[in-house]
Amino acid sequence: MVEQKPMRGPFKGWRRLALWKQIFIALIAGLVVGVALNMAGMPEVATAIKPIGDLFIRGIKMLIVPLVFVSLVTGVSSLDDLSTMGRLSIKTVALYLITTAVAIVIGLVLAVVFQPGSGVAMVTDEAVKVQEAPPLIDIFLNLVPTNPFESFVEENVLQIIVFAIFFGVSIALVGEKGRPVREFFESAAEVIYRLTAIIIAFAPYGVFALIAWVAGSYGLELLAPLAKVILLVYIGCIIHAIVVYGGLLKGLAGLNPLRFFQGVMEPGMVAFTSTSSAGTLPVSIMATEQNLGVSRRVSSFVLPLGATINMDGTALYQGICAVFIAQVYGIDLGMPQYLIIVLTATLGSLGTAGVPGAGLIMLSLVLTSVGLPLEGVAIIAGIDRLLDMARTAVNVVGDCAVASIVAESEGQLDEEAYNTPHVLGSGSDT
Ligand code: ASP
Prior knowledge:
Elements: H1 9-16, H2 19-39, H3 43-77, H4 82-114, H5 136-141, H6 148-153, H7 157-174, H8 179-200, H9 203-217, H10 220-223, H11 227-253, H12 257-263, H13 265-274, H14 277-290, H15 296-309, H16 312-328, H17 335-350, H18 358-369, H19 376-381, H20 384-409, H21 415-419
Bound molecules: aspartic acid (ASP).
Residues 275-277, 311, 314, 352, 354-359, 388, 391-392, 395 line the site of aspartic acid.
């Protein structure tokens, strides 16, 4: 063991703080520093800090492929009964789809009522290249990898999930002879979890740098005409999280929503600053297991799946943006168009990667489905990072909510752990 010198003064106090408090303080401090730099006309200093954030993101990204594969194989291979897997999948996917559809409806209603696009005469000469969204059938076909190693290299999480499920199920079916392989993966999972904990301890510094960069580089003149859209997306996200997730946790699983929101602070804030649900995955897995008592079996399946297919925040944002763009261009949308938007955005969310800006690309799919001008994407592009922060936080919190509900329904949630305040991170307070 390496001998550690006792810490003194403020450092000791800082290290003792629970991780979510450290991250929260970093978030506020980053915001203040970023705004100050912007007002002082020094956004380049904020940009200079960004690599610290990038380093943290690279660290957590490094974990995604091994973590998803190893923990999912461990989870699936330990299922004594394969019908459990089927039941788990159905519940998870059903909850994901339903909450996503509800999210778009919330977005549509907010945008229709509050009219963010009326009075906005937007001329963008900025030629943002509109990327094509993939056809829906390809999204389904691409679930099955032709070469799993290629999926690892390309970080295709959905394909890794599919391969890991087949692999884990086969280990379970082989029985006694498969035991050494299973034990190997169990041990590897412990190692990766340890590594994850080490990297997550750097979250506050990464969060500080990223938020300072965002706040430092967005000037008010860019935000003013689109303030209503930004506000609506944030309000919609808050409503969705509190009403829909809070309601489902209480109503379906009898769980205390307040404890839930406290338990998802770390992944929520990391998602907010990193704008990547896939990147936040290691933090979500650790938080749901340690703070909310969700079993590894459930978290290792539900969360990676959610990080790739469950995008409630993105869907809500697409609903608002579609209506906003229609209003800006003076196009009237009717009930059939709203239904098409709900359907396209729900299915489209299955194919939206959990990476920064993916929702903007899928927005083009939604706009095309109802014949709205794709140039609308260019209007949104300028402020997309700010919208991405809110929607990614909701995407991740939604994954964690579904993991908790499914775990509770399967008897896979440790209620004592759920109701005990925080354990994630090195801090000793709660
Ligand atoms: N950034 C989002 C996520 O990772 C996806 C999106 O762009 O909407 O969940």
